[in-house]
Amino acid sequence: MAYSETKVVLGGLAHIPIIIGFFYLIRRQYSFGAMLRNGKNTLSDQIKAAAPAKAAAPAKAAAPAKAAATAKKPHSDVPVNTYKPKAPFVGTVTENYSVLKDGAIGKVQHITFDLSGADPEFKYVEGQSCGILAAGEDAKGKPHRPRLYSIASTRYGDNFSGNTLSLCVRQLQYEKDGETINGVCSTYLCNLSPGDKVKISGPVGKEMLLPEEEDSNIIMLATGTGIAPMRAYLRRMFEPTEIEKHQWNFRGKAWLFMGAPKTANLLYDADFEHYKSKFPENLKYTKAISREQKNTQGGRMYIQDRVLEYAEQIFTMIENPKTHIYLCGLKGMEPGIDEAMTTAASAKGLDWAELRPKLRKEGRWHAETY
Fold first, then answer.
1. Hey, what CATH topology would domain 89-204 get?
2. Could you say which of 168, 185, 190, 328 is catalytic?
3. Hey, is 133 helix, strand or coil?
C-alpha cells in the first residue's frame, strides 16, 4: 500500500513517543541493575534525606538504653590491692612527728612514707586505706597480720609530688590485769624513725571515696584519728597547690564536725581553721570537746550533741541529693550518732531507720569505724 509524503511524516511523528518510552524503559532497567550491583537504593536514600526527622526517631528512642549499657560505674578506675599482704611494697619513712599540742591525752603521730620506686606504682585516692605489716612475729612465731589505716594524704601526697603516703596513727594503750598493754602495730608505727623500711599493702576500700561532682555537699563526722580521711578531703578541696594540681575545683558546701577530749587533741586544727578563714562560704568547722564544753543538759559535749544542735541545718542539706555524709572514728561513736540522727530526723517528720539505708543505697552515707 502506497503512502503520501504527508502521511509518512505524520506516521513518523506518531512513533516518537514510543521510541522515547522504549529508551526510558532501558534506562530504568539499567538503573535497577546498578542498584542490585551496588546494594544501594538511590530513591530510598533521597526519601530519607528529605525526611531526616522521621528517620532519626528510632535511633533517638534507642539511645538511652545504649547509654545505660555503656555508662561507666562510679569509681571504676580507682586502684585496689596493687600490693597484697603476701607481696607488699617496702616504703621508707620520711618523717614522723606528733600532731598533739602540750597537755593532750595519749600519743598521735603523723607518719609519711616514700613510695618512690614502686613497680607498679602505688597509686591511691582520697578516702582509701592501706595495710601495715609490723616487723617481728606474734606469740605463735608467725608474721604479724596487716593492720588497716585510713590514708591521711591526698593522691599527690603531702609534698604534692605524687610519691608519698601519710597516716595519722594513735598509739593504742589499755590496761589489763593491772598491766599497760601497747598495741602491736600502732606502737611499731609511732616509734618509727626517718629512713626505716616498712611493708605496705593496698590500697583498699571504696566506701569512703569522695563524689566526683565539684558541687557536692560534704558533711564529715570524725573523732580522734578518724580525722585522717577528712584531712585528705579538705586538702583536696581547699589546699591551693592541690587545686592547681588536680583541677578539681570544689564549689559545694563542706561541714566538718570534729570530736576530741581536749583542745590539745584537735588534730590538724590549725590547718582547718586556715581553710575556714580562706573559704568561709564553703567550709564550716564545728568542734565537740568533751572535757571542756557542756551540752544543753550540762553534760559533756560529744559530737552527737553537735548533731542535735544543728539538726535543722544538717537535714536541710541531706534533703539535697548532692549531699554526702562521712562518718569515721571509733565504733563506739555510731550508737550516739544514730540516736542523734533519729531525734533530729523525727523533728522533721522523717524516720532515720528508713532514711539511713536509703542514703546508703544512693551512695550518700559513708561510714568507716573501728
1. Elongation Factor Tu (Ef-tu); domain 3 (2.40.30)
2. 328
3. strand
Q: What is the CA radius of gyration of the chain?
A: 35
pLDDT along the chain (370 residues), means of 10: 39 44 43 38 39 43 49 79 97 98 97 97 98 94 95 96 97 90 96 98 97 96 97 97 88 97 98 97 98 96 95 94 96 91 90 95 94
Q: For residue 104, how many other CB atoms are within 10 A of its CB?
A: 18
Q: Which of 126, 239, 309, 368 is catalytic?
A: 368
Please state, as a whole number, how many other Cβ atoms lie within 10 Å of the Cβ of residue 53: 7
The CATH classification number of 217-369 equals 3.40.50.80
- Return d(Cα 206, Cα 73) in angstroms, integer: 12
Q: Output the nine-digit C-alpha cell for 82.
A: 596493687
For residue 75 the three cell numbers come to: 569509681
Q: Which of 213, 220, 224 is nearest to 252 (CA)?
A: 213
Catalytic residue, from 83, 126, 130, 149: name it.
149
Indicate the residue type of 209. L
The dihedral sign for the CA sequence 173, 175, 179, 183: negative
Q: How many Cβ atoms are within 10 Å of 87's Cβ, its own excluded?
A: 8
Catalytic, 370? Answer yes
Catalytic residue among 129, 130, 150, 233: 150
Is 175 a catalytic site residue? no
**Nearest-CA neighbor of 89 among 55, 124, 62?**
124
pTM of the model: 0.80
326 given a catalytic annotation: no
Q: What is the dihedral of CA 312, 314, 318, 320, to 10 degrees?
A: 80
Domain ranges in the chain are 5-70, 89-204, 217-369
Residue 253: which of 231, 276, 284 has the closest Cα?
284
